[in-house]
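Ticket #4471: structure export looks truncated?
Reporter: QA, pipeline team
Priority: medium

Steps to reproduce: submit the single chain below to the structure queue and open the exported record.
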Amino acid sequence: MSETSHRRIVIGDIHGHYDGLIKLLEAIAPGTSDQVYFLGDLIDRGPQSALVVDFVQQSSYPCLLGNHEQMLLNVLSDRASYHMKQAWLYSGGNATLNSYKDFTIPQSHTEWMQSLPTYLDLGDIWLVHAGINPKIPLEKQNAEQFCWVRDEFHSMLEPYFPDKLIITGHTITFTLPGVNSGEIAQGRGWLDIDTGAYHRKSGWLTGLDITNNLVYQVNVFRNVLRTLPLAEIVTAVDPIDVANRSSVKL
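Actual output as written to the record:
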């Protein structure tokens, strides 16, 4: 397969799986002319969140704010309630704390997380962690929508942008109607590449070379690597099926 240089590569939710991330990047082998983007949710649930944050921060590759980074920042704020702290710990925060020496998250990491954007507009590609709420004007949306939205976004009948493909993480693809473990989900104007790296039903961490429509995946539990054309691993999602189902919270 002939590949185009100057690749744009988007990496889905890592959730603390540093070894899997390194294996994935070794397979992708980004060069100096390539650009790598992270969709957020670097932390929680997996065993090596501290290493993931340190690596992505030091790499200088653009990274978005995910809902798990937002939860951590909320927990560390003055307004944090007992309920908020317990919700974060239950959602994988315990694993994150355990990955840091003395259970202490350095200020350099939290300050970096605070600086992360909620979306990136690349012209023909629009990167966001969770999606967009089509019922709210874009200029009135914030991290609440960009980091957390699910069914309102996945049930859109028409693309939100006429000239931009939205690429997201956040919602594990196999939780969407008709999508199998490890597959990428495609909707009306969007792709979801969170294939559930932390989830025992999947284990697949995904990197999408959007320039060449090529998908790189490593299974963090089975130490398996595969590279496939996007067309062979993408499944279309019926927005009506999404609208008719109950929301899945992961």
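Status: closed, not a bug. The export was complete when the record was re-opened. Leaving a note from the reviewer for reference: Residues 186 and 236 are 5 Å apart (CA to CA).
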